[in-house]
Design a protein that fits this description.
With 278 residues, the protein is α/β, with parallel strands linked by helices. The protein has three domains: 33-121, P-loop containing nucleotide triphosphate hydrolases (Rossmann fold, 3-Layer(aba) Sandwich), CATH 3.40.50.300; 124-154, no CATH class; 156-264, P-loop containing nucleotide triphosphate hydrolases (Rossmann fold). 31% of the residues lie in helices and 12% in strands. The chain is built from nine helices and nine strands. The protein has helices at 14-28, 42-50, 68-72, 98-102, 109-115, 131-141, 189-206, 226-238, 251-254, and strands at 57-60, 81-84, 125-126, 147-148, 179-182, 185-187, 219-223, 246-250, 261-264. The strands form four sheets. The protein has a three-stranded parallel beta sheet. A two-stranded parallel ribbon has the order 1-2. It has a two-stranded parallel sheet with strand order 3-4. The radius of gyration is 25 Å and the shape is elongated.
Length: 278
């Protein structure tokens, strides 16, 4: 028995048949969904360059979260129209290199076009936030243009009657101090302890009546630093609060998701901390 790849009846190897089938499938498709890096795959490029098959339009979702270089990849298909959908007010693309950040590498193409005066369409109605939270976000980041959708029904909970659990509230811990936890991350023990105190009070206040539509109130604890996530999780375990309804994560990991209750621990509040977007 000789080595090598098996061939089929038409003398094509299995790999060649797979490539041929993939190419035929792509050529017959009206819509192709891919990541930005996936748009630079060999199969798509061969179809576009060698066989002169392109796309009439390219839509880039989360365009505010990708670098300009990444956004250029699908534009190699020479589309008639390109549509960028995203929010430049939210997180930029993660950029680890300090030199790259100083050179503004994290800036998205969408942000560059907006700053250059290119006309954009703003979606002003939001369907997720409580009106009080929406009002603050709108005034601080969107020049007051963001508004609550008329069809949005506000869910009110009994625990919101507690002054500590208003829809939007800031707790100023003047005694808290951040410290480096290694690898460029930071933690703040005073904030971690306060978060657990707040959660303990929350569960005492709500008791068994704290229910959302699926029967539980989901809680998210977010922070700009991984060091703080580790510290908060440690404190939760000490208090036996590590239930399935609590999720601790960084701002970057949590983007685009939602919980009934969000607690944000900023860690650093004396300048030089996380970016305004985070």
């Amino acid at each position: 028995v000789g080595g090598g790849e098996k061939t089929c009846s038409n003398n094509l190897t299995i790999t060649q048949r797979l490539i041929l089938a993939r190419t035929q499938l792509l050529q017959a498709s009206h819509i192709v969904v891919a990541t930005l890096s996936g748009a630079g795959s060999r199969a798509l490029l061969e179809m576009a360059i060698e066989k002169s098959v392109g796309f009439d339009g390219v839509i880039v979702d989360e365009a505010g979260f990708c670098t300009e270089m990444s956004c250029l990849i699908p534009l190699r298909f020479n589309p008639i129209r390109a549509v960028l959908i995203g929010d430049p007010k939210q997180l930029r693309a993660p950029t680890l290199s300090h030199h790259a950040r100083r050179a503004n590498y994290a800036q998205s193409m969408m942000e560059r076009l907006q700053l250059s005066g290119y006309p954009t369409v703003i979606l002003e109605d939001q369907f997720r936030m409580h009106p009080q939270i929406c009002q603050w976000v709108s005034s601080q980041f969107y020049d007051g243009k963001l508004r609550r959708a008329a069809s949005l029904k506000t869910r009110d909970f009994a625990f919101q009657a507690d002054p500590a659990f208003r829809p939007y509230l800031v707790h100023n811990l003047r005694y808290g101090r951040e410290k480096s936890s290694g690898m460029g991350s930071y933690s703040n023990e005073a904030e971690a302890v306060f978060v657990c105190d707040l959660l303990t009070r929350f569960y005492k206040t709500t008791g068994t009546s704290a229910c959302s539509q699926d029967g539980h109130l989901s809680v998210g604890i977010i922070t700009p630093y991984k060091g703080q996530t580790r510290l908060v999780i440690e404190q939760l375990r000490r208090r036996h609060l590590n239930t399935h309804d609590i999720e601790v994560s960084t701002v970057d990991s949590f983007q685009g998701r939602e919980k009934d209750v969000i607690i944000c621990t900023c860690v650093r509040a004396r300048g030089g901390g996380a970016s305004e977007r985070r």
